[in-house]
Amino acid sequence: MLKVKTILSYATFKKSREDRPLSPFLPRKGKREGKKDQSFPILFKKLLISFLIIPFFSFGTISFAAFAGSGEPPEYKMKAVFIYNFAKFVDWPAGKPPNSEKNLSVCVLGDDPFGSNLNVIKGKTIRGRTVENKAPVKIENAKDCDCLFISDSEKSSVAKILEDLKDHDVLTISDMDGFLEAGGIIQFVIDKSKVRFLINMVAAKEAGFKVSSKLLELAKGIKK
Question: Which tens digits make up the pLDDT trace of 193-224?
């Protein structure tokens, strides 16, 4: 009887450890002495796959085969995938984006660094809405976008652009330096050759966006 209880206890303990989410920042607790920690790139790659790919298999997949060939995905293809996930893990103000009869628009304002890389998310669905790409768009049309990537080419006028977009329920994203300080919501950064992102929770809350805790856990930094 004691032996059966011991086996069951071990099985329960083993399962609880397997169900524990992998963190890119901290090593697992209780690692055996002398066992080397996995490097940050390996940990982050595992987490990135679970964060980006598994949801796709559950809700309309983007095949990892799309990234095959060069070993590592091109930078802006990865950023396109991140934008898709931003839209999944952010709630728009007052029940927006609009109803599922309207497509979810992902736009680029200014010089388009994505090229064909945005096509990796084109036609995918988020909460019943089909993703459509609009690149590039003019500032007068940017207010109709759901997710807007503001290119580095617009850096000199970014403060005015963000001011003009207030009250239009646009999730603003960029990879230009100082984007959060200018009032943007999400900024891409490169950390150890990996695409990461920062979140401006002050700007998000002011605009009425609710950011999922899952997304916050993956952010490299959060402005509060």
Answer: 889 999 999 999 999 999 999 999 999 999 99
**Domain residues of the chain, as ranges?**
75-223
> What distance in Å separates the CA atoms of residue 171 and residue 185, rounded to the nearest whole number?
7
Rounded CA separation 87/147 (Å): 7
DSSP 118: G
pTM score, whole prediction: 0.70
Asked if residues 125 and 83 have their Cβ atoms less than 8 Å apart, the reply is no
| pLDDT block averages, 10 residues each, the chain of length 224 | 41 40 36 46 48 39 45 82 95 71 91 94 92 92 95 96 94 97 97 93 96 94 94
Tell which CATH classification among 3.40.50.2300, 2.30.42.10, 3.40.50.80, 3.30.200.20 matches the domain 75-223: 3.40.50.2300
pLDDT at residue 102, rounded to an integer: 83
Question: Residue 48 in contact with residue 196, Cβ under 8 Å?
Answer: no
Look up tokens 């071990």; give the residue: 10
Pairing relationship of beta strands 186-191 and 171-174 according to DSSP bridges? parallel
The CB density around residue 158, as the number of other CB atoms within 10 Å, is 23
Strand partners, 144: none
Q: State the burial class of residue 122 (Cβ atoms within 10 Å of its Cβ: 0-12, 13-18, 19+).
A: middle
Cis preceding-peptide flag for 97 (omega within 30 of 0): yes
* Spatial contact of 117 and 82, defined as CB atoms under 8 Å apart: no
Look-up: residue for tokens 């660094």?
113
Amino acid letter, 1? M
